[in-house]
Structures are given as structure tokens and as C-alpha cells.
Amino acid sequence: MDDALGVAELERRGVQVDEVPWQRPGVDWRAYDGVVVRTTWDYQRHLDRFLDLLDRIEQLPVPLANRSALVRWNARKTYLADLERRGVRIVPTRWGRGMSVEDVLALPGRLGAPECVLKPVIGANADDAYRVNADTTPEQARDIAGRYADREWIAQPFLRAILEEGEYSLFHFHGVLSHAVVKRPGPGDFRVQEEHGGIIESWTADADATGTAGAILAALDELPLQARTDLVRLGDGSLALMELELIEPALYLRMHAGAPGNFADALEKWLSMGA
């Protein structure tokens, strides 16, 4: 639905848009004035093939957004460590590979928190994300450990603010703030994604959130065409980066009347610059 609003606005302006599945064979990408990565929500299951395709497109005289190098960097959640080294405040995070039942049950203590969220280094849509706390049974821990056998993971403290205040998402198109939303988990869940029952509402970003998101984008090596910055409040009241979505961020264009136009403005400017 959200992408359809952007497509309709572009077509109203005379821009022809084709929605092409990334795994479709035989596509002549040279026929396009530009290629924008959008709802490729299965890319994480075929990451090497997906990145190879972006590399091939970028070798053609066709602008690609976001650029292949940026997508490749953002595809692994280790980008959070890179941003932390650049001065960005992130949610406290541990990284690892593989784990035992004992490792799963010990995670909250190692993070100094009563509970934590475990998720894969390469993942999307909260796939294989788990909330681990004192109620996690050995049987559940065994299942989690099995899913992460020889697999890279990150673990972060579960922040109560996600339940009480929500997670804030700010959307920038070519570096310009377009709109913002607040996302809260549905009853009995901890995930904020709509497909997991999350509740999404329009939100007017305050100066704190705007400044935090702007500083995060300023820490990047290049300006992305599309970016979604997910922020959450820490116990000391400050905002920290939960995720920076630069590959195929859900844009929630329906949440703000001007958002489809903002997206179209940025894309037209990007095309006019030849990327």
C-alpha cells in the first residue's frame, strides 16, 4: 500500500515506474533511468545473490539507490559497531556466533539486564528474534540454541520503553526529513513490526529525535536516497539507535499526507543528478 502511494505520485508527475521482482531472470536494467531497491523483503535469505545483482546493476550506466556498497554494509548488523566507533549512541549490544543452552540462559546476565532480545546479524522482519528472560525454559533455550548453531547473532537488553513509549522511526529522503511514526508492540508481544501485530501511529518528531537521527546520517560515508532511523529511549532518558534501515525500509507513506510527495521530490532530484 505505501509503495503504491509513491508510485501513484510519481506517475502523476509523468515518471513511468515498473515494479520488478529482483529475482526475475533476464531483466535489461539498462532500459531504466534509475533503479531503487524497495520491497525486497526476502533478500536476507539469498543475500549473496541479492548483493551480486546490485553489483551487476551498478556496473551498468544505471544509477542505483541505495548504492551497492551501502546496502552491503547495512546488510550485517555489525554496522552498529561501526557507527558506535563514529560516535553514534546505540542500544548496548553483544555480538557472537553459535551458542549453547547455557549461553542462551546466561545472556541477560551478561548484558546486565533482566531480559534481552536475541536476533541474527543477517536478518529482517524480526525473523528468528527472541526475548530471553528468567521465564525462558531450558526447552525454549534448546530451540533457540539450535537456531543459532554456527550462526552470528546480536543481543541487546530489552528496553521497557518499547512497551511504554514505543520505538520511533524517522524517514529521510536524500537527507531531508519527511515524516515520522511511533511503533508499539501488540498485546503480549515485543515486536513492533505490523506483520507481528505492531501498532503504527503518525508522530511529529521533536528536536531531540530530529537531531539524533540527523547526526546518525551525518556519520555515514555517503548520503542515502532513502533511510529509516529507528530510535528508542534508554533508561537515562536519551535516545539511542536501534536499527538504521538503508536497504528496503518500510516507508509508511500513508502516515503523512505529504510523504508520497516528499519521496517523489527526492527521487526526481536524484534522477536529475544522475545519482
Structure, explained:
The chain is globular and about 55 Å long. It has a five-stranded antiparallel beta sheet with strand order 9-8-7-10-11. Helices cover about 30% and strands about 20% of the residues. It contains nine helices and eleven strands. A hairpin with a 2-residue loop joins strand 7 and strand 8 (about 175-185). It folds into two domains: about 1-90 and about 160-270, D-amino Acid Aminotransferase, Chain A, domain 1, CATH 3.30.470.20; about 95-155, ATP-grasp fold, A domain (Dna Ligase, domain 1). It is of the alpha+beta class and about 280 residues long. It has helices at about 1-10, 45-60, 70-75, 80-85, 100-110, 140-145, 160-165, 205-220, 260-270, and strands at about 35, 65, 95, 115-120, 130, 150-155, 165-175, 175-185, 200, 225-235, 240-245.
